[in-house]
Hints:
- With 594 residues, the protein is of the alpha+beta class.
- It has helices at 2-8, 19-40, 48-59, 61-91, 101-127, 129-132, 139-150, 162-169, 171-177, 180-189, 197-201, 204-219, 276-289, 313-324, 326-337, 371-388, 409-414, 428-433, 439-456, 467-478, 485-488, 525-534, 546-571, 575-582, 589-593, and strands spanning 252-260, 263-270, 294-304, 307-309, 344-353, 356-364, 393-396, 417-426, 462-463, 491-498, 503-513.
- It has 25 helices and eleven strands.
- Strands 3, 4, 5, 6, 7, 8, 9, 10 and 11 form a nine-stranded mixed beta sheet that branches. A two-stranded antiparallel sheet has the order 1-2.
- It starts with a helix and ends with a helix.
Amino acid sequence: MTSAEGHVNSPLVAMCDEEAIRRAMVKMFTCCVQSVNAIICSDPSGKSSKMKKQKQDSQSQPSLYLANAVFFVLFFSVAYFLLQRWREKIRTSTPLHVLTISEMVAVVSLIASFIYLMAFFGIAFILNPISILEEEDDEAVIEKYSGSCLAGVSPKLPPLPPKILAEKVAPAPVLLSMEDEEVVGAVVSGSIPSYSLESKLGDCKRAAAIRNQAVERVTGRSLEGLPMEGFDYDSILGQCCEMPIGFVQIPVGVAGPLLLDENEYTVPMATTEGCLVASTNRGCKAIYVSGGASAVVLRDGMTRAPVVRFNSAKRASQLKFFLEDPQNFDSISHTFNKSSRFARLQSIKANMAGKNLYIRFTCSTGDAMGMNMVSKGVQNVLDFLQNDFPDMEVIGISGNFCSDKKAAAVNWIEGRGKSVVCEAVIKEEVVKKVLKTSVESLVELNMLKNLTGSAMAGALGGFNAHASNIVSAIYLATGQDPAQNVESSHCMTMMEAVNDGKDLHVSVTMPCIEVGTVGGGTQLASQSACLNLLGVKGASKETPGANSRKLATIVAGSVLAGELSLMSAIAAGQLVKSHMKYNRSSKDVTKVAS
Length: 594
């Protein structure tokens, strides 16, 4: 202990200012060293050769204690010093890679002590299989046979029984050797948690099949018809879906070509609604023969709005004024942007409700949809604000002022994700020959249905015929978050007679299309193929965010085509007839499936 304390008072460790912390660290680490050395020198097998080895090792324990204590204290002391220095640099906006001499010495010392400790305790970890495979439900057994050894006292206790030792050394091979029926029975009985099958079996497909059978037996309901084969279950582990039991088949059709901004796109649509793809395809044809459509992205920014609380409304207003002060934006933006190389803070809007403050952050997110990215940036800012506003209580990282997966006026007005306007001029002859109606009928129907009718219903962002149909189908096909169809389908469809009333100008305004071409479901094989069909797979190498913005314009252009066709069918009185023809089947689907 004396030598260890002497090491604490060495010049290098003197970088830590607080004497009490140093003494506590020395005491704690020395106890840990004694415990580990005692475990290493214990006799789990009881063989006489190991007893002799233990006796020889005990002679070198004093020097081993000293070396361990030195490197323990060195590692945590320099780590504490570097964390203090880096925290100060963050507060003063000093680059972290600019190091002083003392910091370089500390980094070298940290690496050296880390290598020593990893080498030493890595060996100890291997020599003690009981500690490697220790599980919570077996703590009592381990404590019974090796109690004082775990406390750092040299043990002279009998070894663990062979049965217990075997169970703790290799539980996974036992599970792997079990027949599937036995594993299913264990899941049904609850001895093996269903959620842990992937980690215990090491085979995602087998885990899904076993879980499938277990669900059938527990519920007493058949899952016949829910396919298992033909899906890569490894691709969804830790990313898309937990506890899978199969996959649902959704047919994918194509509409197009959609002529948009002088480029042709074949649009994939995953849907089970008859007529939808055919109708959208007819709208694409009307746009194509009329010269195509054009789209413009007005805004591109994902939002997240935490809610924080103060003791008074006056104190909450002080943070509101601080956040909205242009002089403070650079420091806040610097803190926010450290969350990702693509995240760039665009604006901050704060609204109060009593002593509660709702802070709406908007940032660009590259080609990702960006919810996780913006959330990380917001967390960085909240941690930064705690320094100047220690009385700020963070109630939630999301306070619904974002607003995600909900119809909200703030999204309709301010926008969220990509705000897009798409327009086209449909020639008179195309309206008559392809759409089977007239310009006058479409303009009148749009005013009375999409505008007046929606206003009568108190619609929020629903001034359209069926934008959500197209949005949902494309989202499912391309791996987007289908729940974000709620706000992404906010759309106002406008129709107006132009060129002396002969032609039709039609447009859709969609303020919150939330899409990405990287992350989430976009990485699955089927969805990735659909993105590739559109030419927007993955991230844009030339211009970050270009692929996701292009996808947003394709969504808007497809909605424009769908609106044209459906409105024409209603105006011509063909809606019911077409659905009876294409949305009904005389086949017995149950027999077909079997």
